[in-house]
Amino acid sequence: MTTLLHDLRYALRKLRNSPGFTAVAVVTLALGIGANAVVFSILNGFILRPLNVPRAQDLYMIERGKNHAGNQSYPDYLDLRDRNRSFDGLAAYSITQVGMDTREHPSPAWVVEASGNYLGMPW
Hints:
Layout: H1 2-17, H2 19-48, H3 74-82, E1 93-100, E2 107-114
Antiparallel strand pairs: 1-2
């Protein structure tokens, strides 16, 4: 225990002798801890917690092929929807990047393309 106290005193003396290094070290640690907290909060909210929808265990995603691709063509979606006998309903969506023209500076934007029954689904 005495060696720990000696080490702490030595560290504090060294930090007091070089205030510039101490300030940079403290700011770096503060930014690192802050960024860590933000990333964990986002992951906790979006990934670690269950979905905030009723009967979330009843949501499914249809995949196809050996690589389990989740994307389907629109005609395939229409065929699946019309022949559906297993699910309460089928909806389709796609997240796509588009160019948004503001007449001055076009910029990229992410949009969700959804089938007409997407908002009426019983989720």
